[in-house]
Amino acid sequence: MSEASPKQAILVVNAMSRRGEEAFEQACELIEGAGIELIERHAVDDPNDLRPTIEQAIQKAPMVIVGGGDGTISSFAGSFKNKDTVLAVLPLGTANSFARTLGFPIELEEAAQAITDGKVEKIDLGCIDGHWFANVAALGLSPLIAETIPDKLKKYLSFLGYILWAAYMAFRFHPFRLTVDIDGQRETHWSTEVRIANGRFHGGVELVEDADIEDGRITVQAITGKSLWHLAWSWFTTVFHLRARERTWREWEAPELKLETQPPKKISVDGEIRASTPCEVKVMRHAIRVVVPA
Questions:
Q1: Would you report the helix, strand and coil content of the chain in percent, each value rounded to 5?
Q2: Which residue, 2, 135, 189, 206, has fewest beta-carbon neighbours within 10 Å?
């Protein structure tokens, strides 16, 4: 049986995220106004201080509310493994894919109320060569965009900025050979993008519909073929939920698998470059406790 979200918490906001600095005071007011007592509140503007601040908060409070984007969440998600402390997500990033996967509204006031009225559930975490992640990792065109997009373009144009930069970077991108190994059974395909999904949303869009953060499996979805036009068509059909989308990809689901590419590729973990191929991917079932909307 689910339990109600705790009514005491520590708030930690990544002031470097897209809306973090400007939204901090408002977030404090909205959370307390919704009925949660804030034991402490922190606006962190130094990336080296974020993890220590969150890990200290885990030791002090029944719930830690973290404001930031997907990269913020995945950078410390492993710190909540097997802890009684509950993680609550306040969406202050660009895409907010993990918050969307949990079912949270993106508007600040509605999200604060949803945390107060929410319930506690256990969810899985994915792991790529020791790098824990909450939502989605990717290789191919997406990591190239994540690694090279100018900060100002991301901050001021948000999702549109990603689209414009993706169109620009597409002319510098080449397809690759992907090999998926599940218990010694290997498949190889040409691919332009691969999503390693614990959750359904990537880039703010529901791309991996079969992924489930509670089923103990990782879903790997590869956009097959060599054509970037085919990749663009896959995105288009998926965004608009056209039936043709299912013919643009190949999917695998397993608790553990291995990925290889030729040539080797960097892997974007919830928007941040943190791993590369070849790699081992696994899932830890019911690893952390999170708040989800009631």
A1: 35, 40, 25
A2: 2
Contacts of 234 (CB under 8 A, 6+ apart): 193, 223, 245, 248, 249
Q: By percentage, how much of the chain surpasses pLDDT 70? A: 97
Cβ atoms of residues 24 and 15 within 8 Å: yes
Last residue of a domain, one of 124, 146, 170: 124
Assign 247 to helix, strand or coil: helix
pTM (2 d.p.): 0.89
**Non-local CB neighbours of 162 within 8 Å, separated by 6+ positions:** 94, 95, 145, 149, 154, 203
- Picking from 260, 253, 166, 176, the residue whose alpha carbon sits closest to that of residue 204 is 166
Residue 170 sits in the same domain as residue 102: no
Angle at 187 between CA 185 and CA 191, to 5 degrees: 150
Q: Which domain holds residue 221?
A: 132-285
What's the number of domains the chain is made of?
2
Cα–Cα distance for residue pair 154/163, rounded to 1 Å: 10
Phi then psi for 17, rounded to 5 degrees?
A: -70, 170
Tokens of 76: 């410390």
Residue 292 domain-assigned (yes or no): no
Whether residue 241 has pLDDT greater than 90: no
In the chain, DSSP assigns E strands to 3-4, 8-14, 37-44, 63-68, 86-91, 119-128, 131-133, 136-140, 176-182, 185-197, 201-202, 205-206, 218-224, 249-254, 256-262, 266-269, 272-276, 279-292
